[in-house]
Amino acid sequence: MRGLPHLQVGHQHPLFESPSPTHSTRLIKTELFNDSVRQPHDQEVCPPTVGLHHITWRATASGVANENIIADAVSWLVGDPENVEIEQTTSYHGSEVNIITGITKKKSESLMSLSRIGTKNIETLIQEIPKRFDQNNTLHFRIELNELIKGNIVLGQPGPKPTVKVHTKIEVYPGQNPEEECEKVLRSAGSVFERTKDDIEASN
Fold this sequence. Notes:
It is a single chain. With 204 residues, the protein is an alpha+beta fold. It has one domain: Ribosomal protein L5 (50s Ribosomal Protein L5, Chain: A, 2-Layer Sandwich). It is built from 7 helices and 7 strands. The protein has a 7-stranded antiparallel beta sheet. A hairpin with a 5-residue loop joins strand 3 and strand 4. The termini are close together. About 22% of the residues have low confidence.
């Protein structure tokens, strides 16, 4: 997918390790990004009311990986580097681990962020709502990290490949069908992508 800065990361070290929640952590605000990352999200292209609470993108990288490159890619997804944090912690075995998290909590920004995965991936998620949408009205999916770094958005699966885990909370009110509301949000995100894809390509 065009628009994402083409990044490179070394393959000689493992990107992912499982952190231990019992160890101390340190938060670092990432300051790598320039104004071009923010461009697409600055536009008023989202409907004023959408049924989306927030969206979270999270990747885990070993201490020897270049976490800043991963944070740059997550920042492109989120649309604002101020919403990306790098948390330093340690794994069960004592090695350093970095958790890169991007969160948007405003409705319109969350919808724009979700739209970044593109219409083809959105259509796949719509078909898979029954297995990806939980009883807490949260949609779960993954994208492949190495493909993201190359500038491609590919839906990922649990397994050995490094991924960015994504979850987004859908607004559902009494009397509404949760899965139908989820589909409405995804279709709205697809519409946003179609309206903004030329600007995204121009920013590449």
